[in-house]
Design goal:
This protein is α/β, with parallel strands linked by helices and about 250 residues long. It has ten helices and seven strands. The mean pLDDT is about 95.
Length: about 250
């Protein structure tokens, strides 16, 4: 909740320019506020950049004042949706059950859910990271079925790292990502890892992006505060391109 329509359009336009002329182009999803989705879609329509939303209702329609349905989102071209972000869990009381129903609804409408999981500072200190993340995944993916063309993204976002400037080490993130991927293999034994990418989010910046993106266990990053500052986003895109170029050799 940092930018309005004009700023969202400007950021989306600048994001497209960041990818222009690149030999190796990272996959990008732009998730503006609801009020800017229609205008941003006009910019992205002929590009390879995907349009994402920051939330979705688990109901198809009805008396749900203030909520946004899957149909409303698909009508404006949304292909991805962030679900279960820690801010919604902690500030708005979003439960694992709500998250599970939202994932189901997004998949019903052929959208790609970006499921956020992560532990609090206290849970991290107590060494409960894998236990907490595993429980969130188990609850959120309960009864979730993936069709042959469905993709599900998982974003590991330790709550204590979001917007604080603090980040776990690459080794710590790799350990959690391996745990997440083990859980995903059990939940979806016949689904390829390409359809279950695991991202890292939480104070991602130029300084730490390379240490994360160069690791095979980390499939991408979910960028928060830096995404609304085009110079910082530019630095992260540069890092992603460098990693792709190195991997292609």
């Amino acid at each position: 909740m940092n930018v309005g329509v004009r700023e969202s359009v400007a950021l989306a336009r600048a994001s497209l320019l960041l990818l222009r002329g690149r030999k190796h182009v990272p996959s990008m999803v732009v998730c503006p506020p609801f009020v800017a989705l229609s205008e941003v879609r006009k910019l992205l329509a002929r590009s390879a950049v995907h349009l994402g939303a920051q939330n979705i209702s688990w109901e198809e329609q009805g008396a749900m004042t203030g909520e946004i349905s899957a149909r409303m989102l698909t009508e404006v071209g949304v292909s991805h949706v962030i679900i279960g972000h820690s801010e919604r869990r902690t500030l708005l009381g979003e439960t694992n059950d709500m998250v599970q129903k939202k994932i189901t609804k997004a998949l019903e409408h052929q959208m790609v859910p970006i499921l956020c999981v992560g532990e609090s500072a206290e849970e991290h200190k107590q060494g409960k990271t894998n236990k907490v993340v595993g429980a969130q995944l188990a609850a959120a993916l309960n009864a979730t079925k993936l069709r042959p063309k469905d993709t599900l993204m998982i974003a590991y976002e330790p709550i204590w790292a979001i917007g604080t400037g603090e980040t776990p080490t690459a080794a710590e993130v790799i350990e959690v990502h391996k745990h997440i991927k083990d859980v995903l293999v059990l939940a979806f034994p016949n689904v390829s890892s390409a359809r279950l990418p695991v991202l890292y989010g939480g104070s991602v910046n130029k300084q730490n992006a390379y240490s994360f993106l160069r690791e095979p266990e980390i499939d991408g990053v979910l960028v928060g505060g830096a995404s609304v500052k085009i110079n910082q986003l530019s630095d992260i895109v540069d890092v992603a391109v460098q990693v792709l170029e190195a991997q292609s050799k």
